[in-house]
Amino acid sequence: MGKNIQEIKEVKGFLPRSIAYAERINEDFGEGLAGFYESIWAEREGGLSMKQKHLMVFAIACSNNNIQSAVKILERLQKFGATRVEITDAMMMAAWTGGIQNFTDFSAAVLKEMERLGY
Description:
This protein is mainly alpha-helical. The chain is built from seven helices and no strands. Pfam families: CMD (PF02627).
């Protein structure tokens, strides 16, 4: 297992499936994908916070009607201190960009998970 892949595993606590699959195809491909992943999620001075990044990907997942991903991201949002208002603002932005039908589709599952997490 290469350096980038090991670092991702340590930071996340697990290895994302995309990196595991890429490594099975080719070790260099796996390392490259792990480096890409690290670059995206790195905290940079003056850049977006981890909470802001997760709010963005949450809104994108919702607007793309990727319900499974949106629900999983809620746990990360909780870890990074996102408030209910921030999450619902992101949901409303998703309704704006993805359309009201997507909002209708994803909101039931997201609201149920928010309730489970205590939001």
